[in-house]
Every structure is written in structure tokens, then in C-alpha cells.
Amino acid sequence: MIQYLLSKNGKFYKTCLHSHTTDSDGKLSPKEKKDMYKSHGYSVLALTDHELMVDHRELNDEDFLILQGYEFAINKGSPYIYSTDCHLNIFPTDENEFRMICYNPNSIYYKDSKRFIPQLKYIGTPDFEKEYSEKCFQNVIKTAKENNMLVMFNHPSGSLQTHEDMYMFDGVWGLEVYNNGFNSKARMEYDTCFYDYMLRRGNKLFCIAADDSHGSLPPENVYSDNCGGWVMVKADELSYKSIMNSLKSGNFYASTGPEIKELYLEDDILHIKTSAVKRINVNTAYRMCEGKCAEKGKTITEAEFQIKDDWKYIRVEITDVEGYKAFSNAYFLEDLDYFKGEKNL
């Protein structure tokens, strides 16, 4: 029995799911942002400016797709630099949906953003009251699901959140395990510990590497926050519907450099094929983890691991010779054909 965890069919599309432009506090216009990402091998770019969703479909072409979305934020206190906050990216799965949820125009605090207020559309009344509480976050997540939107939980470490905060975000679609904006500042860029914490609690969510880019520096500059974290989406075609279907179902992996080329189970053996890397790991809910390392001065491109019934979930993490990483989504054994009982047939 073979089960592909990344679809055997389709094509990979390099995708950025977190970016900012001059519509809010970014340094590049939407067109400049598109041009930069397209020139660096991207096919899909989500424009997620703060507290507003703007239609930029005029930037689409046969080789490049804009996803609409926005970043929703709640601050716990002030001043901001010392305070815990929460940032959520919200993405409509319908390419014609530009209504925002949980909207309040008073949340639009950037001067350059205020010009968009007369044209913004929203669901419900424009008086949503933000509060750093489980009730508020669950209201946002529930409203998003009711309106066929995906909610991505951004940079918990960068927001000064703790593991104890995570229970408030049950039901999110994905978590940002890498944020290139924080990497460009040399701090708090990885959040895999938060991902595993939520998985161990039983949350079935996907992992995202993203930019959160605001600046204008080209990716070749070591201090650039552009083009450093992405997801490789396996989809049938470059269309909004196809990309969103793959994102919604988890048919993608996250990366800061290396490639996961194939990922499949044959009975209880996990097969992994990658670009040249120095290490391939399989992480689980517990202390039972597996790994394969290249000999000093060499690389590896594949590994096989026998999966045990009591691991709860598996997720792959690979590291190349320069330290860049890629991450598969987590796969719960109870959802995989072989471990659901078909092995006994």
C-alpha cells in the first residue's frame, strides 16, 4: 500500500504567504513586490497588509498569481515593544471574496492605509471590539471558518507569546514556523516548538515558512526580509482555486532553502527524497525521533524510516549544509490509511 503525503501529481509552485506593501507599512508598492518575487522564482504572492484587504488582481498574469488576505492584530497592552500581541493572517478561499471579518475602521492605524477605508468591504457590522482573550480569538477563527477563510497564526515568539497562550488558538489552519522578518533581525525566527506543542495537544494544523517582509532590500542582501521563507504548493495548475485547494488540504511543505521532492508511505515505511542535505529528521509527538546524517563533507538525498504505531504524528525536517531548513506538515497516524486498520486487511 502506497500513500503519497505530497501528491504524486501536479506541480510545485513557490509561494509567499506573508508580505507588506506601501498599502500599509511596507517600503515597496504591490507592483514592485510582485516584480521582486517573480524575478526570484516565485509563482504566488499573498499581499497581507495590516488590517485591510485590497483587490490587486490586476497584477496577475499567466505565470504569477496574487492571493488576497490581510493581517489582523490584537495587542495585549502598551507600549507595543514590551507587550504581548497576536497577529493572524486571514485568507479567503474564494478569489472573488474581498469582505473582511471582525472589522473595525479604528484598527487601521497606518496613515497610508486610511485612504482605503471608504472602499473596504466587510461582513457584519464595522464595530468589532478587539481583546486579547480566548473568547475573542475563537470568535475570529469561528467567523473565518463560517466564511470559508483560512487563519494563519503568525510568529508567536516574535509576538512574545508563551506556550500557555496556545490553547486560545484551537482551530487555526496553520502556524508560521519560520518568519524571515525576524531572521533579518537575527532573532526569534523559528517557532517549531510552538508547532509541536499545538500538535501534541491534538491540534491538526499545517506549518508555514514565510517572509513578513516590509523592506526593499533585495534578497541577496543578508539583512533583507524578502524571499527567505516560503511554501512549495503542489497543485494541478496556477489558479486561485487550485492553489487554495492545495493550501486548505495541506498539499505543500515549508522551506528556507532545501527541497522535499517526494514524501510517501509504503505500508509502514516513510520514504523521503530531497535536494542535497546534511540531515533528514522525522519528529513525533514523543521522544521517539529518527534521523539520518551525511558523513562529514558529503550530502544525502533520501532516507527511509519505519513508522511505529504509537508515534501519534510524524513530521519531516531537513537541513542543508548551510543550515537552511525545510519542514513537512505533520501527519497524524490515525488519518493515514495504513495505520487506520487497512494493514490488517
What's the short story on this structure?
This protein has 345 residues and is an alpha+beta fold. It is built from five helices and 21 strands. The chain is globular.
Describe this entry's structure for a reader.
By secondary structure, the chain is of the alpha+beta class. It contains five helices and 21 strands. It has helices at residues 30-39, 134-146, 180-183, 192-200, 240-249; strands at 2-4, 11-16, 44-47, 65-68, 70-75, 85-92, 99-100, 121-122, 149-154, 174-179, 206-210, 230-235, 252-255, 260-266, 269-277, 279-284, 290-293, 300-306, 313-319, 325-328, 331-332. The strands form four sheets. Strands 2, 3, 4, 12, 13, 16, 17, 19, 20 and 21 form a ten-stranded mixed sheet that branches. It starts with a strand and ends in a 13-residue tail after the last strand. 42% of the residues are buried.
